[in-house]
Amino acid sequence: MGLRRLCLIFCRLLGCFLLLGRSTAVSNAEILVLRHEVAVLRRQIERPRLSWADRAVLSALARHLPPVLRRHRLVTPGTLLTWHRRLVRWKWGQTPTGPGRPPLAEETVALIQRLARENPTWGYVRIQGELRRLGHRVAAATIRRVLRRSGLPPAPQRASQQTWRTFLRSQAHTLLACDFMHVETVFLRRLYVLFAMEIKTRRVHVLGVTARPTGAWVTQLARNLLMDLGDRGGCFRFLIRDRDSKFTAAFDAVFAGNGTAVIPTPPQSPWSNAFAERWIRTARAECTDRLLITGERHLRAVLTTYAEHYNTGRAHRSLGLRAPDDHPSVIPLPAAVVRRRQLLGGLLNEYHTTPPQRLLHPQETPSSAA
Questions:
Q1: 291: in domain
Q2: Which of 36, 139, 216, 356 gives 336 a disulfide partner, CB atoms 3.0 to 4.6 angstroms apart?
Q3: For residue 22, what pLDDT is reported?
Q4: Range with lowest mean pLDDT among 39-48, 114-123, 336-345
Q5: Which of 87, 99, 283, 95 is nearest to 179 (CA)?
Q6: Is 334 part of a structural domain of the chain?
Q7: pLDDT confidence of 207, banded at 50, 70, 90?
Q8: Where are the alpha helices (DSSP H) in the chain?
Q9: Residue 195 forms beta bridges with which residues?
Q10: Nearest Cα to 12, choosing from 54, 47, 42?
Q11: Are 195 and 207 in contact (CB under 8 A)?
């Protein structure tokens, strides 16, 4: 701004020097023309808007005019004084600050929203206490305002808005899910497969294959499942199933005797049993849709092999790219040899690492090398 002002003053001084070379008659004629143009502009514009540069030039030149001519200028002496006071305030003024406390940092606001979303039962004071433990001192009223602006309701309402996804994640270690899967054979015969999944570990159990499923058949497979689970069967508190008529009261009684409550999903709501539905899609995409199934025996052998591969040799994104039967604390070290194992005639591949074998000296025997 200072450079612009100097440039403007230089231009005005240069114009004054050019006027000195003119004759008096030419200068008077130009003044009359300019006065008439100003009078015309005044009739068209009631109140002109001046920039800071215009104000500076008028303030500097107005002191050299006689009192008679000052009365006909665009600005009055009072206006000049107002401009001067404004410049003084601008020079010595400070940045205005609003009343009240300074606003919260964006990181603190994001942390409050995160704590409220991840803990639906936490109230304002509970969140305040957790923030204090983390080194943030925030009032409970401030937390309430932040949550209101974010569209997050109080703790009772947040807890009542629990979805099936949230319920399944929080209860995963105590949940079983079962469902039916159908496969069309080469002879256009439909076969039904009953399977169960442990939600926490994603371990799948193929219980049986038949062309005519009945309630008694399903109940017997439930007993077989509990026998296979053994002591681990008592860890499951809930079983999720749909409202198929083949899941009879006797089926529910088998799990009730084990202390497992059966939770039927809402009608026509496959997403309520999303983990079982996802396994059906995976099994079809990776196995059954790529084979021609001839009968029950063939399908039972194929799905048994695929279930073993799914539990021991297939990486899962939800398990940190591990298989359900992999120990979470075991990290295999890299080896020099990676071997492939083909399943179902090369349809599926499993890869295993083996330690590199050291070459023996011609005079060395295997027992001496060990």
A1: yes
A2: 356
A3: 67
A4: 39-48
A5: 283
A6: no
A7: very high
A8: 2-20, 24-44, 52-62, 67-70, 77-92, 106-118, 124-133, 140-149, 155-160, 164-170, 215-229, 249-257, 274-286, 296-312, 366-369
A9: 179, 206
A10: 54
A11: yes
355 confidence band (pLDDT: 50, 70, 90): low
> If you average pLDDT over residues 212-235, what whole number do you get?
92
- Whether 250 maps to a domain, the answer reads yes
**Mean pLDDT, to the nearest integer, of 303-329?**
84
Q: Same domain for 174 and 287? A: yes
* Domain match, 190 and 148 both: no
Domain match, 211 and 141 both: no
Helix (H, G, I), strand (E, B) or coil at 84: helix
Highest mean pLDDT among 262-271, 313-322, 328-337: 262-271
Domain that holds residue 252: 167-319
Query: Do 240 and 258 lie in a common domain?
Result: yes
Residue 219: CB atoms within 10 Å: 18
CA distance 51 to 58: 11
Report residue 348 as tokens.
Answer: 């599926």
Q: Is there a domain that residue 343 lies in?
A: no
**Number of structural domains in the chain:** 2
Same domain (yes/no): 242, 128: no
Question: Where does the pLDDT of residue 96 fall: very low under 50, low under 70, confident under 90, or very high at 90 and above?
Answer: low
